[in-house]
């Protein structure tokens, strides 16, 4: 039997591929979703704590080998308890399990918080690269409307903001960043910490969302989940802004989705999530990220772009497979008895 390798958070971080490779892994995932992948909607249970959840996210990516030896198969298990920070604990805990695609033997189990942060930022990065950083998109640009460095608004100053800033610096060198958070001290702390992030031209904390997004070429929304949704006024946004929503519809309103070129990571998952208060009033998406990257999306010539990525288990599996390969090369982790 094959060994089962366990990787803790520090070992996952040590085996994480470099940023440029993470962007390529994320784009590979998005391209594969509609053609070479099996990805059921998240299934889960809801523990007693209000707002808590525990979700299973299985995924399969079919490779080119007819015998399945190049397939990737695995699952992410994530539990979220919003009251945890008051106990000094992270709000989310997650693991990724990988299986042998031919025999089904478990190959690895690893901490997934680091993977979640990295793959989420990389998926945002694929949209930024396509629409703003001179990538494959016809609207790619590397300077703002006024001819200077691009202006970026970061809504929320938590862990996701920290993982996104290196991506922004890598893709949009010289970017001028404004960050806002309900906790003004946290926003100021992030701004102070991030002055040394490679590629960030400047970063400042501001006191309101409207101030942060004014004239911004790129808005990345990563606020904490709460009872109040769709809080942002589209009138605050630049006419051709790229809005990347990592936080579902906590900030981006349905009115923005209706007038913008509206893109999601995976269509079926969005439709399954659009229920009750979540994504209320949102239209069907115009395209998925994979369709945009493959050139299968309807044309978009101007105006705002809204990208909502809900987080797909396939990205966790693709990243975990790359991390496992590097961990084996580096001799990281523990081989567990069966």
Helical stretch count? 10
SSE arrangement, N to C: EHHEEEEEEHEHEHEHEEHEHEHEHE
* Total strands: 16
Evaluate the radius of gyration. 20 Å
CATH superfamily of the largest domain: NAD(P)-binding Rossmann-like Domain
Largest sheet: 8 strands, mixed
Distance between the termini: 9 Å
Parts with pLDDT < 50 across at least 5 consecutive residues: 135-139
**Alpha-beta content class:** alpha/beta
Task: Kindly estimate the percentage of residues that lie in beta strands according to DSSP.
Answer: 15-25%
Which CATH architecture of the largest domain? 3-Layer(aba) Sandwich
**Shape annotation:** globular
| Tally of separate domains | 2
Arithmetic mean of pLDDT: 92
Q: How much helicity do the residues have? A: 25-40%
Q: What name does CATH use for the topology of the largest domain? A: Rossmann fold
CATH class of the largest domain: Alpha Beta
Describe the model.
With 338 residues, this protein is of the alpha/beta class. The protein has 2 domains: 4-114 and 314-336, ornithine cyclodeaminase, domain 1, CATH 3.30.1780.10; 119-311, NAD(P)-binding Rossmann-like Domain (Rossmann fold, 3-Layer(aba) Sandwich). It is built from 10 helices and 16 strands. The strands form 2 sheets. Strands 1, 2, 3, 4, 5, 6, 7 and 16 form an 8-stranded mixed β-sheet that branches. Strands 10-9-8-11-12-15-13-14 form an 8-stranded parallel β-sheet. A hairpin with a 7-residue loop joins strand 3 and strand 4 (53-61). Helix 2 (19-32) packs across helix 3 (113-131) and helix 2 (19-32) packs across helix 10 (313-330). The protein is globular and about 60 Å long. It starts with a strand and ends with a strand. Mean pLDDT is 92; it is low at 135-139.
